[in-house]
Amino acid sequence: MIGLISATSAGAAARDRLAAAWPDRTRVYDGPVGDAVRTAFAECEQLVCFLATGAVVRLIAPLLGDKASDPGVVCVDESGRFAVSLVGGHGGGANELAREVGELLGAEPVVTTATDAVGVPGLDTLGFPVEGDVAGVSRAMLDGEPVALKAELAWPLPPLRVGEEGAYAIRLTDRLVEAAEREVVLRPPSLVVGVGASKGAPVDEVLGLIESALGDAGLSRRSIAELATVDAKAEEPGIVAAAQRLGVPLVTHSAEELAQVEVPNPSDAPLAAVGTPSVAEAAALARGGELLVPKRKSERADGQPAMATCAVVRRSARGRLAVVGLGPGARDLVTPRAKAELRRASVLVGLDQYVDQIRDLLRPGTRILESGLGAEEERARTAVEEARKGQAVALIGSGDAGVYAMASPALAEASDDIDVIGVPGVTAALAAAAILGAPLGHDHVSISLSDLHTPWEVIERRVRAAAEADIVVTFYNPRSRGRDWQLPKALAILAEHREPTTPVGVVRNASRPDESSRLTTLAALDPATVDMMTVVTVGNTATRDIAGRMVTPRGYRWQASQEDTK
Ligand code: SAH
What we know:
The chain is an alpha/beta fold. It contains 19 helices and 28 strands. Helix 1 links the parallel strand 1 (2-6) and strand 2. The radius of gyration is 30 Å and the shape is globular.
């Protein structure tokens, strides 16, 4: 819950806007400001104070405890110009909250924690439990001192400023080791604990078993990714409560699925009870991985038969491949999600000219694998190979990365051992349409005139089909130095079914600094004015030039009624 506190009427107005936008996330604290801040501080995970920073500092000073558990506090000034992340920037999420509040109120977020200022992710923001000298190692990374990454397992980390050796170290491990001096230990979510329990097994018995199994094997409970069991035990209170106390999800599998998993210690009891010869081992192994702790049973002080079993598996890291569309060129047409994925990636793969477009958005330490035109297949293969190694990879393309671009060659190479995240981008046809008017108001297709990947007969057949079906057509790759007859030929096919006066929009370098566009007609278009930086959109028989804008009506009825009123 986010507590909202204000003193003045301007503050209250801004507060009410936040409260209206986030009804379920916020609670307004009225009354004397001092009391309101104290109560909210005790009750909420985060506070937004529409008060001067000085006033808030004085009020919260006596309340501050530990930065890991204190609420994050954001201050918004009287005129709503700034949203200041005051305390709890990382642990309390105040930096992120300042950005969100800023976005909502049109205020500038003010973030002063050093790691954010220079683009190094805070070690406590990686989403992994972290132990040891976080402040010291963060400072070393910021100061550019050598920090060694000691990764005991491959895991898709965001970029960190690290090398192979250094006086400071980041150790990535699920083993039960203490952080040494000048070292932090990151706990990847690498362990899956399979659990079985008979009806009514007490939570303490389940938890005690898990803890002793991990402890004896020298594994950290902070690396548990999930508990896993059979569907029939999805509601078993002891298991549900154990997952809750550990703060991890409980994942369940069907008995049929578990019965297929090969395990070292099958037995008859679960087969009779739930229909699979193994619950703990099979559930732990259901998604693959290495069995570190074979099935073991709980021990009961009262000598009664054990009610719980568990087994521990180290799952292999899943690399992450984000296929990111950068939009047509303009920075403000790069989506926030695309930007987030670029910052999330530790390896970036792309065409050199696109890499240049977004280099400043990358975090320091991002490994950049760029190559020139023509190396598409190699780029696709590289991106997938890196992801398979357990890296977080972003593969970039202009416009939408799935439109005549990298997504399909990459996914043709990819297997199901990596996660693939697609981030849509504004494709050239849409960027051009917005410039031209509303040419895509009714059914439309895109056709690439490049016959490098497609035989011309196929392209021609598709152009003809679009012509006959009276569909608006946007031509990508319309013309290059070596390919000059295809566009005239395609336009001639369309002209067999459309008037010479049919509007045609030509947009070059949409949203880039040297953008240009013109509206012409099928008869008047000079193909020599078209190049590879251009898309050409040909209207259907209903498309009109209205006040210099290209408009395709939504339906013929609309068009008829327009004619009626003429
Ligand atoms: N994935 C890209 C398309 C790649 S094919 C996208 O979704 O936009 C390359 C062709 O796209 C170019 O030959 C050109 O026809 C078109 N194109 C890409 N960006 C463009 C832009 N900013 N303005 C005009 N055409 C563009």
